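Tutorial, part two.
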Amino acid sequence: MAANQSDSETAVSPTVVVKLGGAVAAVPAKLADLIGDVGELVAAGSRVVIVHGGGAEVSALSERLGLKPRMVDGVRQTTAEEMDVVDMVLCGLVNKRVVRACAGAQLSAVGICGSDGDLFAVRRLAGNGVAAADASHTGEVEAVAPALLHHLLDAGYVPVVASPAHLAPDVPMNINADAAALELAPALRAQALLFLSDVAGVLSDGVPVAALTPAAAEAEIARRTITGGMIPKVRAAVGAVTRGVSSVVVGRYEGRHTLQRMLAGRQGTTIHAVADAAAPVRSGRHHTEG
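Running the prediction step on this input gives:
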């Protein structure tokens, strides 16, 4: 049940943003375990916001409807027809699946999207060889107005956020959920952003690097320890840290208490601004799916 909190309690309660991918949300047992972790964080006094993706399910339904998803550099170029699918899957199917999982764990959750309360102000996404006209319903977050989330958190609810928003009342926009979470966390002045990926963390020789500062992250990129698609994710995480998020943890969900282990620095890669952590620390652990 939702519980009212006093202003003093709200002021000292840490905010944790959890970004989960559609792969976790699509597996009932994994989702139940993750929501169990969220419940423990809430019981311990944290204010938790969940941001979710679901791109694979969007693509699957698009193909069933005869639409061919188009990707450029990993970014969906969303047509008007596919935007309907994005809204149905992300704001409907996946969002309510997560909300109902919260209800099953006795957590009061409210599912919203980037349009609700004008949460995300967006612009059309263009660049990397993509024209704005080609990406007419693909956007990026320009600003965050977190008032609605603060109201929900103050009332004791767990907000579950789907990223689609709008450029105008008749122009819905598909927003990358990873990018949305990385904008949302600084706007909420979150203590931590737990970024659940399909890999165990930032890897060096197959082993997760336990901790990185912004300077160390750039050094690892220069040494080509961090390569490919992990580069923009790490740089985005560094951006969140430099804008006030205490730490961003990148890792894979591996069963109950993964979130607690990530917050404690015992799993995944923690990116933070602490000066004495300038050198990367190898964890010496390989992770397996739990």
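The radius of gyration is 18 Å. In part three we will examine how such features are distributed along the chain.
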